[in-house]
Amino acid sequence: MLKFMRGKGHHLSAERLKLNKELFSFSKTTTHGFPHRPSALAWDPKLQLLAIGTKNGLIRVYGAPGVEFEGTHKEEACVMELFFLPGQGRLISQCDNTSLHLFELNEKDGKWMLEEVKSCSLQGRLKNITTCCLPSSGEHLLIGTDGGNIYLLDVKSFEMTDHIIYQDIVIQNVPDDYKLNPGSVEAIAEHPLNPDKIVIGYNRGLMVLWDNKTLNSENTYVGSQQLESVSWHHSGTKFMSSHNDGTYVVWSSTDSSKPQEAPVPPYGPFPCKAISKVLWRSVKGGDDFTIFAGGMPRASYADKNTVTVMCGDKHQVLDFTSKVVDFFTICHGDEESEYDNPHTLVVLAEEEIVLIDLESDDWLPFRLPHLSSLHMSSITCTSHVYDVPQDLWNTIITAGNKQVSGKYTEREWPINGGENLVENASVHNLLLTGHEDGSVRFWDASGVALGHLYTIHTSHIFVSEDGEPPVDEEEWPPFRKVGSFDPYSDDPRLAVKKILLCPLSKTLVIAGTAGQIIYFELKDEEIEKELEAHSVNIVSDRDSFVWKGHDQLSLKQGSLKFDPGFVPVTIEQLTPPAAVTAIAFHTEWGLLAAGTAHGFALFDYIQKKAVMSKCTLNPNDLMAVGDAAMSRKKSFKKSLRQSFRRLRKGRSQRSKRDKTPTKEETKSPAKESTAETDTGAATPVVETKPVERQIEARSADDSMGSMVRCLYLAQSFIINNALQSYTLWAGTNAGAIYVFTISLPKEKDNRKTEAVACQLGKEIQLKHRAPVIAIQILDGLGHPLPEPYEVENNRAKSPDLSGNHRVIICSEEQFKVFTLPSLKPFCKFKLTASEGARVRKVAMIKFVSTKDENYSEDCMACLTNQGEISIFTVPDLRRQQTHNVIKREDINGISSVVFTKTGQAFYLHSPCEFQRFTLSAKDILEAKCKVDLPEGARPPPPSSEPEESAEQQTEEGGEISPEKEQEKAIDLATTMVESLILKDEKTESSESKPDANASQDESKGELDITVDSVKDHISNLCTEGVTTIVEKAESSSKVVQETVTKVSSTVVSTKETIINAKEAMITTSDNAKETVINATENAKETFLNATENAKGMFTNAKSTAKETIISTTEKITNSTTSE
Question: Where is the composition biased (Basic residues) (predicted)?
Fold first, then answer.
């Protein structure tokens, strides 16, 4: 029994830990695809960088292919607007929580990153932000609010300024009807030639040309409809406004009495949707471009997402499948040019980004080198192919280029900022994605930029339920479908479930939802042929079976033309037409195995006939599996009784464990979590034998038990140790493993004529009936058996035949290794019993050492339903590392993981994005790029040295800064005045007591001459200054500021006197005593004079004194803050 304990109670040695660091290293490297839920767009014309913000607070910056940066806000919030500070590598974001953030591209530890450096929260101070505008100077950000005011943010200090453009001042000269409530600020547009002037557009249609230098409104423009946006002509003589009734209006910058051109409804006269944004671009020697979003007729095309491009007689309505977020143009001209001369239109939609070449005759789109919409149709399966041969790669590239010939512009990609530092990949890697519409797309996964190469459409060979789409004969508006995102599938049966590509034989197998399996071969020329489907009945021996699902797909009749590339050769149709759940094919043998929920079959695609079929259905479930995934035969009482039994059993076992701990529990510490962040090495796995959970055995009557989960074709020892056999392994949901032996013709020449035989050799039933998800045979040295043609092409060594072969059976609950051919247990690892997790995916990976490229280890990677990935050595199943990779709640992400042979992996981070990560210390692919900023591009940061030195001086020498002295002086003055009021009230009834009080103070001063008494004298000195402040507060606030300054200077100078007095007392006590006595006498005289003056003042104005003091204190505080 000791062999079952292997991998349980071991400790990793120091040598092994060192070796693990050379082999394994987990890190999330990069993302591929299109950002999920985009909400904002920005463009830096100087650095040629594009920024996209998302609704969850993510910001991505893109340059040339491979140049990508990612930044996140500290608090998750929707990014509403983005603004590049041109040429500075800095970016301002405005979020929906009324906050502004400054991001910078900085280099840290040799790596460039996008990081948040400053933020400014406006909550509580302003109303909601409606729009922002960054002038060309880049010094201030203009912030429009729903209250109608415009606030200014100082970009350098990233703080709000005192300068506010109040709505009341702006609309002083407008008609009375619009003075009542112009509405929120809807648009702010800077004059293209005079940066001091801006057009302010309000919600109700009012627009004002405002001079920010003279603080005056030059012209007022009254629109009859609600305003949506404003755009200047480059000449600065006119501008255009768009409105919610689907019209746009041209206004003269000098004449505001009426529009220069009458309101134009492009798609009227019937009611139209709002034109949400308009751009007006000038062209040298040609017609201007007018580009706007929306404006479609409400009755006919209210559901359309459009961007209209007009230039002279040319007019196109770009029709998008998803909602348009924002758009802009890339121009040849800059701010100093006479014309805009736009050459590219960039449109960001919710599900894709599209670039249109405005210089081409037909305004063709650009082919995306990255930022592709991976989910143009929902992704249903994924496969990775490592090290594609060069000839196959070239053929795929050629075929892909021919597919898109004439559909895209020939111009180079216009977004080319930054520099990609990643070297070209030494090998070509493919990522294949199967989609809901029956297509398979080939992606270049060799680098950071995931580029689309080629597409196979299986729907072209089948007759769809909906037939061919109708031809749209509508001529107006002139729609043109753009973009690749198309979430609508004509027929759900077309969805791709499994993909297998053999790069060495250049063959491909695609399996679908309706039992269709298509075998493709690569052709260099166009072919015309007629296709035929070969039916294989899996349940032929079950007469009582009734299929209640969908029908199988029908092939198109007649000859079909196929372009160069992958061409269908053989089509296998499984009956009943259920979704294919497992697939395996061996190109050297010419055999293909496929499984469904009813069983599996072996097909000879060379002779185009079935070799064998096996039904795995339980006789009791023949009626249930056809139309329901859940067994209906279990009674409610029985299931409820079993649930309570499990609860009672669990409680009793827990109480036993709590009362009598085992030796392992008392002696060894609890196993620490090996959870990881995105980067870094895992902590070493130190495992003790855990207390195993009680795992309930699955019922044999489970209707889903018949589903085939894995298939495996391999050559190994099944009958005896001397003879190798061709074998087929099949694992089901009920924990059953079927092992078939296959007889192939001995002579290859007879392969096309001599029949292939297959018979059941062995059958294994797992105890707990856990689903079998993977099977792998290891040779005598513990290496996985090579793939077809790998040995012939020197990609793998011949399998070792001297030692015993072993097979790893991976179920959802445990891994178990058996020795072949005896099937004697070698070792096992119980995952569910020890940790409660279930296995979701397993892959064999070759890890190469970073120190010695000649040293490598074949290991098994295991993904659980908790999102954890563990690495095991084989065949002894010793766990080396565990990493938290995916959140356990992300079920789609866990189910979409695909591993590569070298230790990398992909999973769907969102429906449109792949997250790439690596488990290998050697094979790491991440973005390495930089941005060359011009010399002096960024302004120097505001100097903070004086404040820091003052604070340091206060801490070290005990000195107080002037600002703090001023604050203390104000507090002291307020306290003194309040005390004088109380004194005045007391002295009204006793006018004859001041002399006595004065003599008392005098005698007290003579008897108690100390430093504290001098401080009291200083406080009394402030009374005179405060009296002056009270007298002048109502007349002018400037006098108050001057008086506060005088008081502060008096405090500072007197404080210096105290310090000098202290030093004098230390050196010569007699001199210090005389100095203090003289200072005290002066203080007494000043105090008496100030008291008499204060009495007179408060007697004359007693009723209003308190109110004046309160208001004065507030003004002093405000003026001090502003200073």
Answer: 634-657
